[in-house]
Structure formats: C-alpha cells, structure tokens
Automatic annotation (TrEMBL):
Domain (Protein kinase) ranges: 438-702
Protein name (Swiss-Prot/TrEMBL): Serine/threonine-protein kinase PknA
One GO MF term attached to the UniProt entry: protein serine/threonine kinase activity
GO CC entries: cytoplasm
Gene name, Swiss-Prot/TrEMBL: pknA_3
Keywords, in A-Z order: Kinase, Transferase
Amino acid sequence: MSDKGRHNRRWHIARQVKELIFYLLLCLALPVVASTEPEDAKRAEDVLELWPLRTVPAGTVLRYGDARVLMPGVNLPEQVAQALTTAAVTTVTRKLIHHFLIWTLGNGDRFLSHEHYLRLLGWYQSGLMDDALWSWHYLVRLTHMVNMGQQLLHGGINRWFNLSGLKRVGQMPVYPGRVLDSHLLMDIRLDLDWQDRATAVLDIIPLKSTPAEEPLPPRLQQIHQLSVVALQNHVDQIRLIFSPDDSVSLGWHKHGGEWRERLVSPAATKPHSSWLLRNLVTSYGLRESEAWSMGSVLDTDMLQRIQSIIAGKLSEDDICETHPALEVAGSSGELVRLNDRHLIYQSENSHELLHILNNDSYSPGLPGVMILGSDIAETSETVRQSRQYRLPEWLAAIGASMLYDAAALLMNETLDAVLEKANRHWHGADNFELVKRLKVPKRQRGGVATRVDRVRDKQGKTWVRKYLNWDHMAEDDKYSGIFASLAREKQILMELDDEHIIRLKDSWVENAGHRDATLVLLEEDAGESLIHKYKRINSAKTLKNVFRGTLQGLDAAHKKGFAHFDIKPENIMEDGQGHIRLGDFGGASRLGADGRAQVGIMTPSYAAPEMHYGKSSHWQADLWSLGITGYNRASKKLLGDLYTNDIKLLQKTRSRFELMDYLPSSVRTGKKTPMADFFTRLLVSDPVSRPSIPELLQHPFLAEKPSPLRR
C-alpha cells in the first residue's frame, strides 16, 4: 500500500473513531440534565429509566430493546475520560520525550564521555531512539495487559475453585422472575478475605418504577417497591455487604453523588450466618437438611426497613436498632437439597429457590444462578426467557484496552494537530515567506544534508532557516549523524552570543513525537558565504577583512570553550556591509582543560593534518583550516610568489607539511612579506607552534584595519 493509501486509511479510521467517541460522550453527558431538585424529580426519574446507558458503581447497564446488559467493572464516563486523558498524556509525553532526546543529542557531549556519547549517537543512527518515543505508550499497553492477565487469572482460579468444590466464589446473578425482569438487576458476589472467611455483597440496580404487570408474592412485591423508592430518591444502586462477623451494612449511591452507608445489623452475639454467607458458600457441600435464616435480609420487614432508610424516614437511633427479623433464633425456614440442581429454602408461607445453572461455563453463573420464585418447574425457563445478561469481568479490562487504543488513535490525529498548530503559532513559523532556497538536502554520503532557505518576515527582514528531518537517512540506510550535529549547533549557538558569530533567533521541532519530525533553526541572515560570493578574492583588503572577522569569531568561540573544527569558505559569511560572521557550528566540539576536543564532523580538504591521525585535536586546528581557506580563496595574482599547486595535492594526500617548504627559494631565503609570514605561521604542521589568536590579530598583515567594504 502506498503512503497516500495508508494516510487515507488512517484518516478514515480516525474519522470513524471520532464519531463513535463523540456519540459515547453525547450519551454520557446528556444525563446531567437530570436535576436533583425536588420539583424536577419526575424528569430526573424518567431520564434514569429511559437513557440507554446507565452507569452505576457496579458497572454499566446497556439497554437495547427489551434486553438489559450489565457490564461489571465498566464505568463508561470515567473510563472514557481516563482513556482520553491517558491517550492525551501519551501524545504529550511522546512529544516531550522527543524534545528530551533532541536535547540529549545536542548536549550529550557536555555530561557524557566521548565513548558514551558515541554510543548514544549509535542508538539514534540505528533507530533505537524511535522505540523510546513510544515508551510511555508501551508502558500503558503493558499495564493493560497485566490487568487483563490478572482478571483472566482471577477468573480461572475462581472457576477451578468452583468446579473442584473447594470454595464457592465469584459472581452469582439473581433473577427476580419474569414480571420484574425489566425492573431491576440483582447480583451476588461471593469472596473470601485474607483469613479465608466468607464475605458476600448483594447489589440491586433499579431500572424501572412502573407498576408490575401482574400480582407478585410479598417478597417480590417489596423488592419491586424498593426499586421504585430508590428511583424516586435518585438512587441508582443499593448494596448490602455481609461481613464474616454476620454484620450487615447497607449502602446506596445517588445518581451523580456519593455513597452513603448505614449499619442495619450489628455483629451477632452468637455464632450464626446469614443466608448468603452460609447457604451460598457451603451449599454445594450440603449433606443434610439444616435450618438457616435465609429470609433474614430479604424478608418483607427488612425490605421495608431499607426503603425507610433510603427515603430518610429513620433516625440514626432507629437505624442502629437490632431488627427482630435478623435474629436467627426466631427463624423458621429450612434449606433442603432437592437434587443436584436445586436448593430450596422453605418458610411457613413461601419458599425461595437456589438454582444451579451453567456452573461449568466461562460465562457468569459461577458458582451458580439464584432465582427468586415459587415454582420449581419455572426455574430453568425463567433464566432462559430472561432478557438480563451479564458480561464476564475480564471483558472490562479488554474493553478498557480497546477504548484506550481508540482514544490514542483519536488523540494521535487531533491533539497532535492542535499542538502542532499551537507550536507553529507560538514560533511564528507561518509568518515567513520563502525568498531563496540556498541548499537542498541530498542523501549521498558527503552531500548536503540540511535544507537551508532564505526567508523574509512580515517586517521585510530576511533570515536563514535550516531544516533537517529526524529520520534523515545516510547512504548506508542508517539515520544520518547530521541531525545530531544540527541539534548540537542549536545548543552551541544558544551559548555563543557574539557579533562575529551568526546568532540564533529561534528554534523549534515540527511534528515532534514522530519519525518525520523536523528540527528547525532560524538564524540571522549574515549574507553570502565566501564560496558563493567570491570566485577568487583579488583584494588584499577583502582578504584581511575575512581573516580578521573569522579570527574574532574563533576567539569568541574558543573563550566560550568551543573549537569549530570545520572552517571552510562555505561557513564564513559576509554581508553587504563587509561584516564577517562565522557559521555552521554543527561540527564544533567542547574543549577540555588541555585545550583539546574530540573531532566530529570535518571537511578533509580543509582539516589540519593532526585531525586525520587522532580522535582529538587542539583548538589550533581551526587556524590551519583558516589558512587553507584563505589560501584557496585568494587569487593567484594576490598570492604572487606564495602560490603553488603542491598545496592542493598535499591536501588530498592528508600529509603533514610546512608551507614554507614548498615556497620558492626566493621567498624562503629572502625577506618575507607580511602576507607570506602570516600564511606560513598558520600553515605549520605542529599545532603548538601556531600562534595564538591575539598574536595573529596583531600581526603586521592585519595591523591596518580596513574600512568597511563598499559593494
């Protein structure tokens, strides 16, 4: 597939994802119109009942036609917000990491040894740094994978416990029967604490407050009435927590609010267990009939008490009072194993059924299914005809991961574009117009790597703008080290501030966080380079001006602790007023205490002899390069007796030589002119023998400061 085809496909997918997330956000945001004011109670109640997505602490309920699907552990508003936030953080972090990597390439030689910096550069050239850009994304994905693994492992362990009969743990749906199937959802969660003591949680999620279509038994009637009272009081979930000490706590959650809790049954003074703790945890191992208080919590009196608590009709003293229905001593119920699939609790006027169904499947139902009803024959049919569905909890972890992927795709396109536009606006990248393209990047080894343009701002002033892509390739299909040189030049120019050195106005990274990111440097327009301005220099004043301006620039750089190491005609600029400025510090290196620096980028034909034979060189190598630059740019007529073709041949062989040895005998034996003495002192093979920059600036050849040149 072509790059254009991939781009169109990514754009189409991103657009679909945007529409989907917009719809989800719309569905999740509209319920806020449900006011909690008393006069708007009916409107809020209608919204809670009719909206297709209901998010409660236990999960999210999806209404699709007559079906009600409970997705445990899924909180769509929170997870959508978290996915979008995480994706946004990932996008921003990727950009920050990219800026840090570029800063490291530009400053690594400051705090790393040369060997370690070369290793860092090798990581960049081999593409390993591309993986670092996505490190946060990989960390988030790893977190999701670990979470999914934990959920699947937990589900597998629970399944093994239930099938082996060792423990009864997991999620148990409670079906309220055909009449109330669409009115409420009930679920029991069985678990064990760290002391292997049984705990249980009963969740009731009210869905509809409409009257039941048919008459109901007393218990189901009270359950239905409880859901009606809950919706009228904006309660979207009721939770009963049964602790190992037989205490029972009631909690209820108001829509858009917080949990409220009340203790409805203190700890028992004598050993006993409620119907949930004893029946459901030990039911599969039941060997004989026993009497338990199965109806202690869901008896009609207790359901009325819960209604009163939610409606605020009971005081604190009334709530903490022990209710007679919670006492086991007065219980007259009996739990009987009817067969392998039925456990029946029978009381004086009714009985409840614990129906074990699908307990060997991966879907919810482990450790069984409970049905509240009165007819054994209807139990299987009740589950079969029910329009209530539960999804496994491990799907929530998978859904969260998929939601993050969708949000990441959205953020990668939208937030990235927003941040990029803000970045360009901040730096005024669109406030310049192209005047002339000075250099076009080439891939060939030794070719120009950086694109250079002359641009004009809105005030009419011209600037030079340099560009280079992060993934610029060298001839060997590796990332070119030129990018690191441009990053290093940016940092060096930020430290250097001298009238004889090109100043950096601004710099930024376009499309940061991606392989096609571009580092942009905006520098002052210092005119034309010597190689473009002069085919040959015929004027002694011009040559002196070039030497003086370049030496002053080198002196400023050396005092700041930098050696240029790439002095050549292309890097010496002259403007229309004859001002000389030194540019292109991409090959510069930091000087050590001994005045030496590591050799990076250099141009062999202008490099000092010692630069070809060692990893480090003295700062005096810049003087040699300046001498070769002046010698090559000066015309044959201007050089006079100093001119010899041997110099160019010696440059190509990279040999150590003394200019004096190749000059005519008349020059060697006679009195040297100031120009001859100046060149011979620069082109000395021993770097230590080369004079200092202040000495050169006081040399008779440069003693007379030329007036600014007129062009």
